[in-house]
Design brief:
The protein has 16 helices and 16 strands. The chain has helices at about 10-15, 75-90, 110, 120-140, 150-165, 185-195, 215-235, 250-265, 270-275, 280-295, 305-315, 320-330, 335-350, 355-365, 370-380, 395-400; strands at about 35-45, 50-55, 65-75, 100-105, 140-150, 170-175, 200-205, 235-240, 405, 410-415, 420-425, 430-435, 440, 445-455, 460-465, 470-475. β13 (about 440) and β14 (about 445-455) form a beta hairpin. α13 packs antiparallel against α14.
Length: about 475
């Protein structure tokens, strides 16, 4: 029988039962900061009840999207850091948003034994056959998983590569304690030699600390085997990061960040125009097609990549190419007021008045208060009456939208602050700008929020645009 008990929604509550934390009384004005939830799962493989921790990305409750999964060993010490790092990198566009699963230790050296005979690790069976299917059932996941392990847990991450290579596609191995299993590099080498025809399609980041003994020797030995495999068969991406000035305990602070960046290398295109110059839109399409094939799920060309390329082409007055790029952005996101504004701006420079007017009208119809489009109307000395009027809602009209929205529990809270509306999830706040009496732009989350009303004008729910969630008004 499966046991599940949600953790109280606060950092202090998350820390209950985890060493190194002290719980203080909440002040009268304090607001909990939620990192995740703690659950329990009765394991047949382990013969006991196992705890696990889950952190959902900020967009989870307002989206129907699916997410890759980061599994963090030594969850009692690394879960919070890994969750915060994943969120920060995703917000910066360096990696996709991740669902983070932490596995606290019960009997660390028993469970994380990397010398166990093939097929005998009960802990690996628990992860592969019980925990991950539970996560896939209860959360919206992608078929891409990363395993992160530090020290003794780093050995177990490598053990899982050779014992269950189909389970994870990315590995972040931090200061693996090769002194506790000096034969593991040769065991990995033997696995690689015996599986020449098997496509691993994996990414492995290996980091060292400032140690100089068997741990460092083992890392260099393993590196030689992995580099050989990566160079010959091209089914493994591998990097070794040495940290001669970093202590053993502090390595995860840097390595979680660097490891996730490496695993998702190519997600962020730092210079989209340089990529475009290699072969136009075909080069950009090829990049994202290869990234999609590597990750195992579709990664569309981001609007920001097309906008960045457009901006440079416009700057260099390569107008026909700029038109091709912005039309591509509009084909992918036909309701993007930003893309419509850029198109209008381009046609103004090209002297195409009819198309400028058409795109500008479309932009202001979608986003009547958009300052960029309004400024273009003013700059071109156009008749403002030809465009949608700005939307202004009085405070009394906004009041009806305030309240809690969700399915069975509130996951999105809307507050009125004077003449403004703010939307809040458990860990993020968004500004809502009126597009119509019932439709608002959520600029920070990149979608619109449309409210549903009954025949009497009472708000009954809301829907996030672009395939987002539908939530009922609960209070």
């Amino acid at each position: 029988m499966r046991l599940r008990s949600a953790l109280l929604s606060s950092v202090a509550a998350l820390a209950l039962g985890l060493p190194g934390f002290h719980v203080h009384a909440q002040t009268a004005t304090g607001t909990p900061v939620v990192v995740g939830q703690r659950w329990q799962l009765r394991s047949q493989s382990m013969g006991d009840v196992r705890p696990y921790l889950v952190h959902r990305p900020a967009s989870y409750d307002i989206s129907n999207a699916r997410y890759p999964v980061l599994v963090v060993l030594d969850g009692e010490s690394l879960f919070q850091h890994a969750s915060a790092t994943a969120d920060l990198l995703a917000a910066a566009g360096k990696i996709p948003p991740l669902l983070v699963v932490g596995i606290p230790n019960v009997d660390r050296f028993r469970d994380l034994d990397s010398t166990a005979a093939p097929g005998t690790s009960a802990f690996l069976k628990f992860i592969r056959d019980e925990l991950l299917p539970t996560i896939d059932r209860d959360y919206r996941t992608r078929p891409y998983r990363i395993l992160a392990g530090h020290s003794y847990a780093g050995l177990f991450a490598l053990y899982s590569l050779i014992e269950a290579p189909e389970t994870f596609r990315g590995y972040v191995v931090m200061a693996a304690a090769f002194g506790d299993n000096p034969e593991l590099p040769k065991t990995v080498a033997a696995f690689l030699a015996a599986h020449q025809d098997r496509k691993l399609n994996a990414a492995l980041y290996l980091a060292t600390d400032n140690g100089t003994g068997k741990n460092l020797t083992g890392a260099w030995e393993l590196s030689s085997y992995l580099q050989d495999r990566a160079a010959r068969l091209l089914d493994l991406r591998f990097t070794l990061r040495t940290n001669p000035n970093e202590s053993h305990a502090a390595v995860p602070l840097r390595s979680v960040d660097e490891g996730l960046r490496f695993v998702f290398d190519g997600w962020d295109v730092a210079d989209p125009f340089a990529l475009y110059e290699q072969g136009g839109l075909t080069a950009i399409d090829k990049h994202y097609a290869e990234l999609s094939a590597r990750l195992g799920f579709p990664v569309p060309v981001p609007d920001e990549v097309l906008f960045g390329t457009f901006g440079q082409l416009e700057r260099f007055k390569r107008f026909p190419e700029a038109e091709q790029v912005i039309n591509r952005a509009l084909a992918a996101s036909p309701e993007s007021s930003t893309a419509l504004y850029y198109a209008a701006r381009l046609y103004a420079q090209m002297g195409n008045q009819p198309l400028m007017m058409e795109r500008l009208q479309q932009a202001l119809l979608l986003s009547p208060n958009d300052p960029a489009s309004r400024s273009l109307v003013e700059y071109m000395k156009l008749d403002a009456s030809q465009f949608a009027s700005p939307v202004r809602l009085a405070a009394k009209d906004l009041a009806k939208f305030a309240g809690g929205y969700g399915e069975s529990a509130v996951v999105f809270q809307i507050e009125q602050r004077g003449d403004d509306l703010r939307g809040k999830t458990a860990d993020q706040e968004y500004e809502l700008n009126a597009l119509s009496p019932t439709k608002f732009a959520c600029s920070e989350c990149g979608v619109t929020v449309s409210f549903q009303l009954d025949a009497r004008g009472k708000v009954t729910g809301l829907e996030f645009g672009n395939g987002g969630a539908k939530l009922a008004k609960l209070r």
